[in-house]
Amino acid sequence: MAASGSGGSRADNGYGSQQQPRRRKGPGALATAYLVIYNVVMTAGWLVIAVGLVRAYLAKGSYHSLYYSIEKPLKFFQTGALLEEYLLIAKYLPGIVPSSVVLTAFQVMSRVFLTWAVTHSVKEVQTEDSVLLFVVAWTITEIIRYSFYTFSLLNHLPYLIKWARYTLFIILYPMGVSGELLTIYAALPFVRQSGLYSISLPNKYNFSFDYYTFLILVMISYIPIFPQLYFHMLHQRRKVLSHTEEHKKSE
Fold first, then answer.
1. CB-based contact 180:41 (threshold 8 Å)
2. 85 in catalytic set
3. Predicted pLDDT at 248
4. Which of 46, 94, 138, 161 is a good FRET partner for 131, with 20 to 30 A between their CA atoms?
5. Is 179 within 8 Å of 134 (Cβ atoms)?
6. Which of 180, 211, 212, 230 is catalytic?
7. Total-model pTM
8. CA distances from 19 to 12, 130, 205 (A)
9. CA distance 43 to 77
């Protein structure tokens, strides 16, 4: 989800909000160094995925089934976003949570869920074009997002990256969400047939779980959450880019 767009929505300047009632103390030098390294590594990782997609496409001459060419790095770096989520939820660093933790958590967890519990677990969907749809959306979103964080932490944020961060999501978020939903939908028949991750009664725990129904509920959950994330980013775009334009005029 672009993601995951998405990546999820964060602050106007990366890790801190522009308009707060009280100015929060930023991360110290050691924490900043750690965050810079983390974001540089994540940027490089998603660049590896992008290059892998391009090379596979050029070698095959087709965009079908490109998932296999980037499967391992995708799993590694998408799962690596959980560390970022831990920092957000734990509020390990002051001022790191300017926007809704719930929305951010949903985006990160939904992507990890798509990666492992759907695409990895249901092998039959790995050849679906919808997988490429969300992988491309995630890849572009994350390269921009982690670059944005890196330059923000270094206090040298190019306007082009800021503009891309708050503009390209307009296309990438719906693209990623469409790919995610289509992939889950494609997995449903195989999940129902195989009984994947389902638990039937009777059992000693007196508990049942239907993974097929759970996936349907996951799809339904996109209805209230995605618009919140999308319109929040639209609001942030107006605020951030208009603020930048006013700052340029005042110089």
1. no
2. no
3. 57
4. 161
5. yes
6. 180
7. 0.84
8. 9, 39, 51
9. 9
pLDDT tens sequence across 81-130: 888 776 655 544 444 434 556 667 778 889 999 999 999 999 999 999 99
Q: How many C-beta atoms lie closer than 10 Å to residue 83's C-beta?
A: 11
Across 214-242, average pLDDT: 93
Closest CA to 138 of 70, 86, 193, 204: 70
For the chain, the three-class secondary structure string (H helix, E strand, C coil) is CEEEEECCCCECCECCCCCCCCCCCCCCHHHHHHHHHHHHHHHHHHHHHHHHHHHHHHHHCCCCCCHHHHHHHHHHHHHHHHHHHHHHHHCCCCCCCCCCHHHHHHHHHHHHHHHHHHHHCCHHHHHCHHHHHHHHHHHHHHHHHHHHHHHHHCCCCCHHHHHHHCCCHHHHHHHHHHHHHHHHHHHHHHHHHHCCCCECCCCCCCCCECHHHHHHHHHHHHHHHHHHHHHHHHHHHHHHHHHHHHHHHHC
Q: Catalytic pick from 173, 211, 212, 230?
A: 173
The domain segmentation of the chain, as residue ranges, is 27-194+207-241
18 token code pair: 């522009």
Count how many Cα atoms sit within 13 Å of the Cα of residue 57 in the half-sphere of its side chain: 9
62-87 pLDDT, tens digit each: 999 999 999 999 999 999 988 877 66
Active site residue 173: yes
